[in-house]
Structure formats: C-alpha cells, structure tokens
C-alpha cells in the first residue's frame, strides 16, 4: 500500500515538474497580452455600455413608480402671540403615481439601431484583439527566424575561424600569401558584424513586442519553424468583405439608417395609475387607472431630425464605400508584394543550393591543391550572406502574409 502511495506521489511530482518547465506557447503569450491590455478593457467597457442601452430599450415597458409626500404646518395669529402651532395645524398629503409605456411605434427601429451600435462596439474589441495577435505573431516569428540565422551563422563562423587559423599557419610556413590571411580576417569580421547586427535586430523586435504586449518577452518562447513556413506558403485570400473594420463600418451604416426611422415617434400608449391621500387617508375620488394614447401628428423638430439623420446616413454610406475601395487597393498591393517576395525566395533558395555545392567543390579542390583556403572561406562567407538574404525575405513574407490576414479578416 505504501509503495502505491509513493508511486502516485512521484507521478504527480513528475507531472507538476513537466508543467513547470513547459515552454511558453505563442497562443499563451498572445492571450496574456490581450488580458493585460488596458485598451481592450476600455473597449470592452464601452461594449458593456452599448449592451446596457440595448437592454434598457428591450425593457422599455418597465413601469416607473413614484411617491411624493408633503407635510404642512400653517402659521396662526393668536390674541397674545404670533407663531406656529405645529401639532394642531399639521397636514399630510401623499401622491402615488405608476406609469408604464406599453407600446410605441418606433420601438423596433430604436432597438435595431442600438443593436447595430452594440455590435459595432463589440467589433471594436475584436479589431484590437486581431491587431495585437497580428503584431505579436509577426514579431515572434521574425525573432525565431533571426535566432535560427544566428545559430547557423555562428556555426559557419566557427568553421571560418578554423580555416583562418590554418591560413595563418600556412603564412608562417611560407605556403600562403599574407594577403590571404588579411582578406580572410576581413571576411570573418564582416560575418561577425552581420551576426551582431542580427542580434541587435532581435533586441529591437523584443522591445517592440513588449511595448505591444505590455509584458516581458518569455525566455522560453517555443516556436516551431514549420509553422512559419506554413504561414509563408499559405494561400492568400483576395477578398476584403470579412475585414473587421469594414464590418464595423457596415454596422455603423445600419445604425445610421435605423436612426432615420427613430426620428419620428407618432404614437405611444401608456398605462397609468395614481391615487392621493390626505392626512394618510386614501381618497377614492382622487384614485384612477387609465390608458393614455399620445399622437404626435405634427412636430417640426421631428422633420429636422429626419433630414439630419438622412444626411448622416448618406455620409456613413459614402465612408463605407470609400473604405471598401481603400482596403481593396491595400490588399492588391500586399498580394503583389507577396508574389514578388515568393519568387525572390525561390531564387534565393536555388542560390543557397549552388553556394552549398560550391563549398563542397572548394573543399575537394583544396584537397588536391587546386584552390586555396582563402577561396574556401570566401565560399563560406557567400553562403552565409545568401542565408541572411533568404531570412530577410522570409521575414518580409511573414509581415506581408499577416497584413493580408488582417485585411481579409482571417486573424
């Protein structure tokens, strides 16, 4: 029995230890960033405001109940004094009123208008979440690409330094020119500077990322580069109809359209009840229950409200049309950039293959004294430069693809 208990305890400890050392995923980091965003919290509060207004309109029939009570004490003049006799001359008057608006002809229009406004406010939250998700994903993927570049660059640099050491030995032995050693040193310095520049680029990306997310960049962030490759190779959608900003503007246009119909409320029906009590005694003659119908047959103010609302609707509709055209142009531009960089990436991958073959050829030629170590280190330097250019293109493709996802509403 004790063995089973110990085994169970060890199993739980191992599970907890595994959880404790688990890498931070991109989705976890994004959700933490969204949860810590004060802007999103503000937008969600504004969304709550619009939902409350909608609920208020939905329950427009809820009655108002009002009681007012007045206590009066009259002044009296006596033969010997002038003053107040508070007990003999005090009177009480109470009024009780209950009123409920049980029907009005523009209720459905008002409700539809407020529903569209609430949906637009909710869309604001979604837009901000999408922006945060896109910005964080872009930076994290780029960091992963450049970290991979640094790892490969440092590996190449180590090989180049080993070759450089061999060149120095040959120079000392009179088997190589001094200029070969100097040129090799220049090439190695160029590689070191390129790696340093990439590290500074990663540092800047992390700073930008922390500014967007509001939380430190996790040291244990885990990104599988196959997911980056999948994004780069993803088929792009060429339609902006699901763009979140466009959908929000369409909801605002709907609200403006409904506002035209809400400008005129020509009929409403109220149920009311009221009673009165004098000196705390109800008066039956002052008690009544009734239905009041109000007809607003002519009101110049409603006419001007209607004209104003109509003009506002036209303005919103024009803005929607312009936004749609602007988004189409932006998408077309991004798709063009995407296509150009994909073709460039294919060319760079072919170039890397050629440069890798060149390194092998240089090594084979060196074995038979056909080429020099300097030419071999030069081949490695060209190979690293090609990888660096390919990584920059991949980073551009990540930026472009996520921009397209924002434009098409896919993120």
From TrEMBL:
It is found in: Cell outer membrane. InterPro entries: TolC-like. SUPFAM superfamilies: Outer membrane efflux proteins (OEP). Coiled coil: none annotated. Residues 1-22 form the signal peptide. One of its GO terms (molecular function) is efflux transmembrane transporter activity. Keywords: Cell outer membrane, Membrane, Signal, Transmembrane, Transmembrane beta strand. PANTHER family: OUTER MEMBRANE PROTEIN TOLC (PTHR30026). This is Uncharacterized protein.
């Amino acid at each position: 029995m004790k063995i089973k208990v110990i085994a169970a305890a060890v199993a739980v400890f191992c599970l907890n230890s595994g959880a404790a050392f688990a890498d931070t995923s991109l989705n976890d980091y994004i959700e933490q960033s969204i949860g810590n965003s004060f802007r999103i919290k503000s937008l969600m509060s504004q969304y709550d405001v619009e939902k409350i207004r909608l609920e208020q309109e939905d329950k427009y029939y809820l009655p108002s109940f009002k009681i007012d009570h007045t206590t009066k004490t009259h002044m009296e003049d006596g033969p010997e004094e002038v003053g107040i006799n508070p007990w003999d001359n005090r009177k009480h008057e109470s009024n009780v009123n209950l009123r409920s608006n049980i029907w009005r002809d523009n209720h459905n229009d008002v409700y539809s208008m407020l529903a569209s406004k609430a949906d637009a406010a909710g869309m604001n939250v979604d837009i901000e979440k999408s922006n945060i998700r896109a910005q964080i994903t872009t930076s994290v993927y780029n960091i992963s690409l450049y970290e991979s570049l640094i790892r490969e660059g440092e590996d190449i640099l180590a090989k180049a330094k080993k070759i450089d050491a061999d060149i120095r030995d040959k120079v000392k032995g009179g088997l190589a020119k001094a200029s070969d050693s100097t040129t090799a040193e220049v090439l190695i310095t160029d590689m070191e500077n390129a790696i340093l520049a990439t590290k500074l680029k990663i540092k800047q990306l992390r700073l930008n990322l922390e500014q967007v997310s509001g939380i430190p960049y996790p040291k244990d962030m885990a990104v599988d580069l196959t997911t980056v490759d999948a994004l780069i190779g993803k088929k792009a959608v060429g339609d902006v109809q699901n763009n979140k900003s466009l959908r929000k503007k369409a909801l605002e246009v709907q609200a403006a359209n409904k506002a035209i119909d809400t400008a005129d409320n020509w009929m409403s029906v109220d149920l009311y009840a009221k009673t009165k009590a004098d000196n705390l005694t109800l008066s039956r003659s002052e008690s009544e229950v009734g239905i009041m119908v109000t007809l607003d047959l002519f009101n110049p103010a409603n006419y001007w409200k209607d004209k104003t609302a109509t003009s506002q609707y036209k303005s919103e509709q024009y803005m929607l049309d312009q936004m749609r055209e602007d988004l189409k142009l932006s998408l077309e531009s991004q798709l063009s950039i995407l296509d150009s960089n994909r073709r460039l990436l294919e060319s760079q991958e072919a170039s890397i293959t050629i440069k890798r073959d060149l390194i092998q050829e240089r090594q084979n030629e060196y074995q038979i004294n056909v080429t020099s170590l300097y030419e071999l280190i030069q081949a490695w330097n060209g190979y690293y430069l090609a990888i660096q250019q390919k990584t920059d293109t991949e980073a551009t493709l990540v930026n472009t693809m996520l921009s397209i996802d924002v434009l098409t509403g896919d993120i």
